[in-house]
Task: structure prediction
Amino acid sequence: MERRDPWGARTSAVVSIVVWEALLPERPTSLRADVAHIMARGGGYIAEVEVSNEGLETAANVDIEGVSGSGTATATIDYVPGQGSVRGYLRFERNPQPLVVTVKGWSEP
Result:
């Protein structure tokens, strides 16, 4: 009876994964902010903003800004995972429509 080396299969699997990851195209952080919803709340308006990351890298401390004729608001989102999305909220005194939201910056976790 022939004896098999269990480490050989494991080593091959690990090497295959490393090679696969190396051959994948690099997809750095790519953030986009969109207004999901604007609602009247507590004597003001809340803009719900969805921040999407189309890259593979996670982004931390994501700063978003909303600008409208009624003012400017900013917020920081703790993190946005690679190929994921997170919602943040901006508060305005008056109705902010039309509202333009942008990602101003982020850091690596």
